[in-house]
Amino acid sequence: MSNNKIDLFFVQDSNLISIPNDNPQTGLQTTILSLPISTTGQPIKLDSMCSVQMIVDNLSDPVSYAIRYFLFRDNIQLVQTLEVANLAAGVFGDIWVTPNFTWIDIPTKGTHTYEVKIEVTAYNINGIVGFSRVLNAIQLV
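and the corresponding structure tokens:
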């Protein structure tokens, strides 16, 4: 039997957040979560997700989008996920996507701030909003 202890850090929010459409693409990132934690220098397992709704402008037009989902530690990018889609006209209503990641980080001992950012570039989309979102960090101490 192990005497290891686990520290759980988390931030979650279910309030609506507006996400700007980065069209034309300029690299506009929106911070959707921030989590300060104190670390022992041991590995940290991070998991995050965000429920994103894209409001379709006109069902008779095709839709395309690219969603980039980022994890930063102390303003340094650790990981990025990318989801891209090109959809034919008239076969959908609003689009729901849930970008997510799992990442293992080994920070130095001390206090660090993890941030989750999102960048959405979309065509024939009238609005983009984020709903439920979470960032969990687990540290074995």
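(Above: one complete record from the training split.) The chain has one domain: 18-140.
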